[in-house]
Amino acid sequence: MKKPIIFCDFDGTVTDNDNIISLMKQFAPPEWVPIKDRVLNQTITIQDGVSRMFSLIESDKKKEMIHFLKKTAAIREGFQEFLEFAENRSIPFYIVSGGMDFFVEPLLDPYGPIKEIYCNQASFKGEFVEIKWPYPCDKECQNGCGCCKPTIIRSLSREEHFTIVIGDSITDLEAAKQADLVLARDFLSKACEKQGIRYIPFETFFDCRAILEQNLEVV
Ligand SMILES: [Mg+2]
Ligand SMILES: [Zn+2]
């Protein structure tokens, strides 16, 4: 019998919306838009684009940004119940996020248990926000992911694991390719369809719990 292990995205998965986009709309000058477009049409890497977008925001906005997201970011329904379900089944739950520590950690603080949070780091020491990348791509990934989800999964997964990936966007696609079970919504579900990757759609974490209850019995 294989041991389930969960890797869950944060922006657009745990939260309803993408927090980087919310922050840019609220705090960045309009120059962030063409940078975002270049990330989306893949003429620059995610890592490069996100660095450039945050470098448009002054460091002294830190508190205001955290306050803004705490007030506006909605956590998807059933998240705490899902964490408790995983805990009861002794399934380790990891967050793998392309977001930044200064908002991922405070937004997740009321919830648990979470085995580990993998995300990027923001430095507010200079005049403008600087992003640090503690989890870069390994030799097997050339995408410039910033926070490389496939690399993290490779480093934590063992032969005996049944790897579950939960996500919503294109940045979860490479991770989904390595998973034994994919729970997908939004762009990720469309991408999986195009690439012929088997997935199960979800909207809330209550759906995720029901999906695991059904699918783990046969593992
Ligand atoms: Mg996401
Ligand atoms: Zn990568």
TrEMBL record:
| Molecular function per GO | 2-hydroxy-3-keto-5-methylthiopentenyl-1-phosphate phosphatase activity
Concerning InterPro entries, the annotation shows: HAD-like_SerB, HAD-like_sf, HAD-SF_hydro_IB_MtnX, HAD_hydro_PyrdxlP_Pase-like, HAD_sf
Q: Which UniProt keywords apply?
A: Amino-acid biosynthesis, Hydrolase, Magnesium, Metal-binding, Methionine biosynthesis, Serine biosynthesis
- Gene3D superfamilies referenced in this protein's UniProt entry, alphabetically: 3.90.1470.20, HAD superfamily/HAD-like
The Enzyme Commission number assigned here is 3.1.3.87
Pathway(s) the chain acts in: Amino-acid biosynthesis; L-serine biosynthesis; L-serine from 3-phospho-D-glycerate: step 3/3; Amino-acid biosynthesis; L-methionine biosynthesis via salvage pathway; L-methionine from S-methyl-5-thio-alpha-D-ribose 1-phosphate: step 4/6
Q: Which catalytic reaction applies to this protein?
A: 2-hydroxy-5-methylsulfanyl-3-oxopent-1-enyl phosphate + H2O = 1,2-dihydroxy-5-(methylsulfanyl)pent-1-en-3-one + phosphate; O-phospho-D-serine + H2O = D-serine + phosphate; O-phospho-L-serine + H2O = L-serine + phosphate
**SUPFAM superfamilies per UniProt:** HAD-like (SSF56784)
Catalytic class of the enzyme: hydrolase
Instruction: List required co-factors.
Output: Mg(2+)
- Purpose: Dephosphorylates 2-hydroxy-3-keto-5-methylthiopentenyl-1-phosphate (HK-MTPenyl-1-P) yielding 1,2-dihydroxy-3-keto-5-methylthiopentene (DHK-MTPene).
The family classification in the record reads: Belongs to the HAD-like hydrolase superfamily. MtnX family. Belongs to the HAD-like hydrolase superfamily. SerB family.
Name of the protein described by the UniProt record: 2-hydroxy-3-keto-5-methylthiopentenyl-1-phosphate phosphatase
Q: Which organism is it from?
A: Heyndrickxia acidicola
